[in-house]
Amino acid sequence: MKALITGASSGIGAQLAVEFSNLGYDLILVARRKTRLQELSKSLKTKVEIIPLDLGSTFNCVKLYEQVKDEDIDVVINNAGFGLAGEFTETKLDREMDMIDLNIKAVHTLTKCFLKDFKNKNKGYILNVASSAAFQPGPLMATYYATKNYVYALTMAIYEELRKEHSKVYIGCLCPGPVNTEFNKVAKVEFKMSSLSSEYVAHYTVKKMFQRKLVIIPGFLMKCSYYLSKFSPLRLKLKVIYHIQKSKLQ
Fold first, then answer.
1. What is the pLDDT of residue 166?
2. 71 φψ region: left (φ > 0), alpha (ψ -120 to 50), beta (else)
3. What pLDDT, on the 0 to 100 scale, is given for residue 225?
4. Is 186 helix (H, G, I), strand (E, B) or coil?
5. What is the pTM of this model?
6. Catalytic residue set
7. Residue 128: CB atoms within 10 Å
8. Stretches in the chain below the pLDDT threshold 50
9. Per-domain residue ranges for the chain?
10. Distance CA 95, CA 93 (A)
11. Potential cystine with 91: which of 15, 34, 38, 86 (Cβ 3.0-4.6 Å)?
């Protein structure tokens, strides 16, 4: 058994590596920071291959696939991504383009490449990591929310295609709320509500993935927020989200 995890150098990605290793999976761990990957690999119980690579490049995404496509991979976790906060007219365009490349294009490319192989084998798991941000627009984090909307919508569409084909391939979407990771520092935000631990999120995620849950939302409060948001008027949601994001800006 083998799992490939992107964005594996810290946070949810690193904890997912721990979970899968504990289940007996050999691992292919991908991230930019080689030293972090090396440190993580020493703590894991199974065989680990580390691939230091910036997946913000579509060329690198295809390169990664070509490098590992002949290995018998059972699980692909598209976890690499980052956030950015601020007024849309004030955030830097080049940083937003980097985020679109990583949060959208990398997920799209790797999902397409591996899904073709999984469909041919009629087995395999693909989990795309989005966010609770996937369910609504996000003033003051407009581009980040939009990227996670894309990941969520893409995953839902592919799920239905697979279902109609009676495929045994699984695809699902992880949509966590605040998690205690490096995300806050990179995005330059500070959550006012309590964050879940990455250990809890990873453990819950793996359990629900193997139960073939389509949308995985860790935490009772985030589940309540998800269902309530379905019945809230859009303009009210926008006002609430703006207020929440404003309070998070450092």
1. 98
2. beta
3. 77
4. helix
5. 0.88
6. 144, 148
7. 26
8. 185-187, 189, 191
9. 2-248
10. 5
11. 86
The letter for the amino acid at 226 is Y
Given this model, what pLDDT does residue 181 score? Answer: 61
SS (H, E, C) 165-208: CCCCCEEEEECCCCECCCHHHHHCECCCCCCECHHHHHHHHHHH
Residue 110, number of CB atoms within 10 A of its CB: 24
Q: Which residues are CB-contacts of 2 (< 8 A; sequence separation ≥ 6)?
A: 25, 26, 27, 28, 71, 72, 73, 74, 75
Under 8 Å between Cβ of 82 and 187: yes
The mean of the pLDDT values for the chain is 91
**CA–CA separation, 196 and 181 (whole Å):** 9
Q: How many CB atoms lie within 10 A of CB 121?
A: 12
Whole-angstrom Cα distance, residue 178 to residue 182? Answer: 11
* 222 phi, psi to nearest 5 deg: -70, -35
Domain 2-248 has CATH 3.40.50.720: yes
Structure tokens at 66: 């070509």
Closest by CA to 48, choosing from 39, 59, 61, is 39
- At 105, the amino acid letter reads K
Query: Which tens digits make up the pLDDT trace of 143-154?
Result: 999 999 999 999
